[in-house]
Structure prediction request, 154 residues.
Amino acid sequence: MMMADTEDGGGLGGGADQAAGASGGGVAPAAGGGGSKFGNIRFGSVQDSAIGFGDHNHIVNGSRGEAPCDPAYQELLEAVRQLAEDLRRVIPSPEVGALSDELDRTEDEIQRTGRAGAGRLARIRVLLQDAGTGVGMLASGVAVGQAVGALLGG
Prediction:
């Protein structure tokens, strides 16, 4: 977030630059042209935005939210979240821990990119099998298995 208030001569555009004009100033055009003159600039509150001043700016304001994904990956994401929550109530084991860690990485990848790579999906499939029948009996475990199978083609 960026805030500047130049009415009092401080902040952005203040100081010596303000002497250039009675309107609150800025930089007076240089002899021969090519300069710029800025009026009063005031930012109240700026959120989730990008602002640039001067010549040759390149501003990128990327979204911090989830990347859009197709319905199949959205379904997988929902199932992964549910299974991760359910695994917190399962008796811990190394296999359940490995599955839980991979689910966390999968959720992160889908949120960032809108999809999960085939290698990650294959690891989830193997980890679901390794975690045993306890996870396989959970509805969320079945949902993840089905979503992964649909995305991997079988």
